Amino acid sequence: MAAEFELYHHPVSQPSRSVLLTLKVTNAPHKVNIVNFEKGDHMKPEFLKLNPFHKVPVLVHGDFVLTESPAIVKYVLSNIEFDDHWYPSDLKKRARVDEYISYQHTTVREIHFVMNFILKPMLTGQPISEERKQEIVNNFHDVWQGFEGYFLKDRQFIAGEEVSIADIFAVSEILQSRISGRDVLSAHPNLVAWIERTKAATQPQFDEVFKGLHEFVKARNIPTYP
């Protein structure tokens, strides 16, 4: 069995949730350290030694430290035994997983619901304009319509008929839209169906991971859409 992985995590971080859910569904031995950004944990010297960019997730494995969620997930999988569908040995399916993980950085990861709807107003004291909110929502629709038309065309999941780490990364991103306080998903019934398939394929660990997000937004009275 692999040595225990130590994850530095925050429940509002989509990449961090993706790593944690992967650790859980593959039964990788791990412990979780919550990085409290509101208390400045990410700026403390002991954390900056792990990640000078003061972001999560961070993985510590023995004396090895790794940042960036795709690299972390692939490193974890390289150190454990896991069911093949998570990161398929079939080269074409694996390439499809890697394709999505590369694609996400300039598309779905650029929507920034949390940054624009919560963090900027919190840090600056200035509310986000309704025009800016609508611009972000419109971008959401454009990006996820493109995702649906390409990555889910004639497939149940991104890599085919079984769930993979690509679906974990993607579903963590799309569910960040709940923080917008708007119904942005009902216009995409095929996406909603895929979300439900991914949730079902990753239960009960899915609920365990996303419970942290729900508790965070509820404690701060952040408006969400069910």
Structure described in brief:
The chain is α+β, with helices and mostly antiparallel strands. It is built from nine helices and four strands; from the N terminus they run E-H-E-H-E-E-H-H-H-H-H-H-H.
Q: What key phrases describe this protein's structure?
A:
alpha+beta; 9 helices; four-stranded mixed beta sheet; 226 residues; globular
How are strands sequenced across the largest beta sheet? 2-1-3-4
- Tally of alpha and pi helices: 9
Please give the alpha-carbon distance between the first and last residues.
39 Å
**Helix and strand sequence:** EHEHEEHHHHHHH
Average of per-residue pLDDT values: 91
Q: Unreliable segments (pLDDT under 50, ≥5 consecutive)?
A: none
**Strands, total number:** 4
Shape: globular
Largest sheet: 4 strands, mixed
Class computed from helices, strands and strand pairing = alpha+beta
Q: Which bin fits the share of residues in helices? A: 40-55%
Radius of gyration: 17 Å
β-sheet strand percentage = 5-15%
Description:
This protein is globular. The protein is built from 9 helices and 4 strands. Helix 1 (14-25) packs parallel to helix 3 (69-78), helix 1 runs antiparallel to helix 7 (165-174) and helix 1 (14-25) packs antiparallel against helix 9 (205-219). 49% of the residues lie in helices and 8% in strands. Strand 1, helix 1 (14-25) and strand 2 (30-34) form a beta-alpha-beta unit. With 226 residues, it is an alpha+beta fold. A 4-stranded mixed β-sheet has the order 2-1-3-4, covered by helices on one side.
